[in-house]
Amino acid sequence: MQAKAMDGTDRARALEIFTAVVDLGSFSAAGRQFDLTPSAVSRTVDRIETRLGVRLLLRSTRTLTLTAEGRAYLQAARRILADLNDAEQQIADQGAPRGRLRVNAAQSHGRLCIVPLLGEFVRLYPHILVDIALSDTLTDVAGGEADVAIRFGPLADSGLMARKLGETGRVIVASPDYLAHAGTPRAPEDLHHHNCLNFNFRRAEPIWPFRRDGEDFALSVKGTIEANSGETLGELAAQGVGIARVGRFSVINEIENGRLVPLLEDYNPGDVEHIHAVFVGGANIPARVRVFVDFLVDKLR
């Protein structure tokens, strides 16, 4: 008599029962796992063998032994169940993305531009736990140190995916108080007589780029303080310590409220830094990563 054909649900259940029998070593143990009698588990294995026309398990009073066909079937069963679980997780994530999302951003940009958006993001996706680290040290995304990192400037060749979030220009600024007592530079060369605050990144000397009559040139400047943060340099400039050249995003609020004044804009070379979100790509990007990057693109562009 021909065995009744199993539907998709029956087959998936049968695969689970068969792998449990092998893993646990008996019909009784597998039955306890699925709340079935040992005879019900045995009938499930019998139906698989009848449908395939081969023996998968050799039974004795004390042991169960896989045949060669059984070993091949077990390997296929594990692969199918894993693929099924992955597919279900992906669909579930699309409905409600969840899990820990590790984000790395530079200190200034993170505090000024990323952190203010997180409240809205977690209201939209309450099942995602955002774990954000603000650091000017590059994080190894490919090595698993972060799920998403915000990067400035040219991107190194790698296997990572990148989405452009925007770009930021540079601006030279000083406070009204500083300009009142030190004077306002009218040409780039006037900066030789001013206290120019600089980044402390490794370089031969502090150089600020300019453009005059369509020609680019660079000017060496000197000052009394160096820092690794544009936000820090901007705050020092706002306090009247000196003149700084920083990313416009880091001082836009101070410019708007009058604490800082843009200088030498006619000589601004228009150089910009591109801002990207980088993350591990591929066919199975976690939904929490995908929705976060989409959110940043929408908000920051």
Describe the structure.
This protein has 301 residues and is of the alpha/beta class. It has two domains: 8-95, Winged helix-like DNA-binding domain superfamily/Winged helix DNA-binding domain (Arc Repressor Mutant, subunit A), CATH 1.10.10.10; 99-301, D-Maltodextrin-Binding Protein, domain 2, CATH 3.40.190.290. The chain is 42% helix and 25% strand. It has nine helices and 13 strands. The chain has helices spanning 8-24, 27-34, 38-52, 68-95, 107-124, 176-182, 230-238, 248-256, 287-300, and strands at residues 57-59, 64-66, 99-105, 128-134, 148-152, 160-174, 196-199, 207-212, 215-220, 226-227, 243-247, 261-263, 272-280. Strands 3, 4, 5, 6, 7, 10, 11, 12 and 13 form a nine-stranded mixed β-sheet that branches. A two-stranded antiparallel sheet has the order 1-2. A two-stranded antiparallel sheet has the order 8-9. A hairpin with a 2-residue loop joins strand 8 (207-212) and strand 9 (215-220). Helix 1 crosses helix 2 (27-34) and helix 5 (107-124) packs across helix 9 (287-300). The protein is rod-shaped and about 100 Å long.
